[in-house]
UniProtKB/TrEMBL annotation:
Stated name of the protein: soluble epoxide hydrolase
Entry annotated with the keyword Hydrolase: yes
Organism, as annotated: Eleusine coracana subsp. coracana
Family: Belongs to the AB hydrolase superfamily. Epoxide hydrolase family.
Keywords noted in UniProt: Hydrolase
Protein role: Epoxide hydrolase involved in the biosynthesis of cucurbitacin and mogroside tetracyclic triterpene natural products (e.g. siamenoside I and mogrosides IV, V and VI). Cucurbitacins have cytotoxic properties and exhibit deterrent taste as a defense barrier against herbivores. Mogrosides are nonsugar highly oxygenated compounds used as high-intensity zero-calorie sweeteners; they also possess pharmacological properties such as regulating immunity, lowering blood sugar and lipid levels, protecting the liver, and acting as antioxidants and antitumor agents.
Pathway this chain belongs to: Secondary metabolite biosynthesis; terpenoid biosynthesis
Hydrolase as UniProt keyword: yes
Family matches, as Pfam families: Abhydrolase_1 (PF00561)
Reactions the enzyme catalyzes: (24S)-24,25-epoxycucurbitadienol + H2O = (24R)-24,25-dihydroxycucurbitadienol; an epoxide + H2O = an ethanediol
GO molecular function: epoxide hydrolase activity
EC numbers: 3.3.2.10
All copies of domain AB hydrolase-1, residue ranges: 27-152
InterPro entries (UniProt xref): AB_hydrolase_1, AB_hydrolase_fold, Epox_hydrolase-like
C-alpha cells in the first residue's frame, strides 16, 4: 500500500495542506473534513480508496492543521472555502471529481455541488444534509435554543477560545469527539465546553496516540479559524441569496448515523425520512446506519462499504470517458 503523501499548494491566496494516497491516475475522490477535525479523519477511507484504485485527496480546510489560518472571520465565508477547493482542483488539473464530506465538510461539499456542479461527478455526505436557504438569517433560526446553544456561543469572537483555554487541547477535542447527546445546549450560564464531558479512557475508535496527533496540530493552529466558520453563518445566508430555492442536481448519497447530534433538535431525522431532503436533492440515495457523529472514524468499514456501493455505479462511465 502506498504511503500517504503530504504537500502544500498556494491556492486562493493561502497555502493549503493536502494529504493524498493512491495512484495519481486513479479516479479522484476529494475528502472534506468537519469540526474539529483534520485530513486525518479520513485515514480509514483513504487507505480503502487507494486499495481500490482511487486517488484519495484530503486537504486540511483553511483554518485547520497545516493549512493557513487567517484571523479575520470574513476570510471564512462559504465562497472562500469553496473557492479554496475549486482552486485546489484547478491546481491539480482535475476538472471533475467525486466528493465526500462530513459535518462542515458536508456543508462545503453541498455548496461546491450547488455553485459548481460541473466539477462534481457524484457526492457523498455524512451527518449534515443539504438545507435550502431559509427565510431568516441562520442564527435567528436557532434563537429559540438560547445562549447555551453551541452555535450561539461560537458567534462572539474570543468567547469560545477563552472557554476552550481552560483545558488542554486534547481534552477539548475529546469532549467533542465523545459527545453522544442530541442537543448541544449547555445549561444557563454554562459554556458548552464545560458542559461536555471527556471520558477518562480512550475512545473506542481513537487511540491516545491518534488523539495526540490531532492535539499537536490544533495546539499549533488554535481554534479561531474553525470557529470562524460558525461566525460567518449569517453572512453566508446573505451571500447565497442568488441560490434561493435552488436544488442540488448532482447524484448524491447521504449517510446518517442513527444516534447523531441534532436528529431531533435540528429536525434532521424528520427532514430526511419525510422526503424533504429528497425534494431538494432529487438524485438522492439515503443510508441510515448505527453510530454517532464522527461516523467515518467510528464505523469505517460500514461507511467505506456505503461509499463504494455508490461510487462504483459511476466507475464504468468514468473509465470509458477517461
Amino acid at each position: 500500500m502506498e504511503e500517504v503523501r503530504h504537500w502544500n499548494a498556494a491556492v486562493n491566496d493561502i497555502s493549503v495542506h493536502v494529504a493524498e494516497q493512491g495512484s495519481v491516475d486513479g479516479p479522484a475522490v476529494l475528502l472534506l473534513h468537519g469540526f474539529p477535525e483534520l485530513w486525518l479523519s479520513w485515514r480509514h477511507q483513504m487507505r480503502a480508496l487507494a486499495a481500490r484504485g482511487f486517488r484519495a485527496i484530503a486537504p486540511d480546510l483553511r483554518g485547520y492543521g497545516d493549512s493557513d489560518a487567517p484571523t479575520d472571520p470574513a476570510a471564512y465565508s462559504v465562497f472562500h472555502i469553496v473557492g479554496d477547493i475549486v482552486a485546489l482542483l484547478n491546481h491539480l488539473g482535475l476538472p471533475k471529481v467525486f466528493v465526500v464530506g462530513h459535518d462542515w465538510g458536508a456543508l462545503v461539499a453541498w455548496h461546491l455541488s450547488l455553485f459548481r456542479p460541473d466539477m462534481v461527478r457524484a457526492l457523498v455526505t455524512l451527518g449534515v444534509p443539504y438545507f435550502p436557504r431559509g427565510p431568516n438569517p441562520t442564527t435567528e433560526s436557532f434563537a429559540a435554543l438560547g445562549d447555551g446553544f453551541y452555535i450561539a456561543q461560537f458567534q462572539e469572537p474570543g468567547r469560545a477560545e477563552r472557554a476552550f483555554g481552560r483545558y488542554d487541547v486534547a481534552t477539548v477535542l475529546k469532549k467533542f469527539y465523545a459527545m453522544e447527546i442530541d442537543e448541544l445546549v449547555a445549561p444557563p450560564g454554562v459554556e458548552i465546553i464545560d458542559f461536555l464531558e471527556a471520558p477518562s479512557s480512550p475512545l473506542p475508535w481513537l487511540t491516545d496516540e491518534q488523539l495526540a496527533q490531532y492535539a499537536e496540530k490544533f495546539h499549533k493552529s488554535g481554534f479561531t479559524g474553525p470557529l470562524n466558520y460558525y461566525r460567518m453563518l449569517d453572512t453566508n445566508w446573505r451571500l447565497t441569496a442568488p441560490w434561493n430555492g435552488a436544488k442540488i442536481t448532482v447524484p448524491a448519497k447521504f449517510i446518517l448515523a442513527d444516534k447523531d447530534v441534532g436528529l431531533q433538535s435540528f429536525g434532521i431525522e424528520h427532514y430526511v425520512k419525510s422526503g424533504g431532503l429528497k425534494s431538494n436533492v432529487p438524485d438522492l440515495e439515503v443510508a441510515i446506519i448505527e453510530g454517532h457523529h464522527f461516523l467515518q472514524q467510528e464505523q469505517p468499514e460500514r461507511v467505506n462499504s456505503e461509499i463504494f456501493s455508490f461510487l462504483d455505479k459511476f466507475i464504468t462511465t468514468v473509465e470509458e470517458s477517461a
